[in-house]
Amino acid sequence: MESHIRELARQLRSRERTAKSLVEDAFRRIDEREETIHAFITLTKESALKRAAEIDTRFDRGEQLPLLAGIPYGLKDLLCTTGVRTTAGSKILESFIPPYDAHVVARLRDQGAIIVGKTNQDEFAMGSSTETSFVGPTRNPHDPSRVAGGTSGGSAAAVAADMVPFALGTDTGGSIRQPASFCGVVGMKPTYGRVSRYGVIAYASSFDQVGPLARTVEDAAIVYEGIAGPDPKDSTMLPVSAPPVLPALREGMKGVRVGVPKEFFGQGIDPEVETVIRNAIRDVEKAGASIEEVSLSYSGVALPTYYILVCAEASTNLARYDGVRYGRRVPAPTIDEIYKRSRGEGFGTEVKRRIMLGTFTLSSGYADKYYRKAAAVRQEIIREYADVFKQVDVLLGPVAPEVAFPLGSKTEDPLRMYMSDILSISANVAGVPAIVVPSGTAHGLPVGLQITAAQGREDLCFRVGAAYEQLKT
Amino acid sequence: MSTTARPTDVLHLAELARLSLSAEEVSQFEKKFQDILGFIAEIDKVSASPHPLTTTVSGVSHRLRDDVARPSTLADNLIALAPERRDRHVRVPAVL
Question: Does the distance separating the beta carbons of A96 and B18 come in below 8 Å?
Answer without folding.
Answer: no
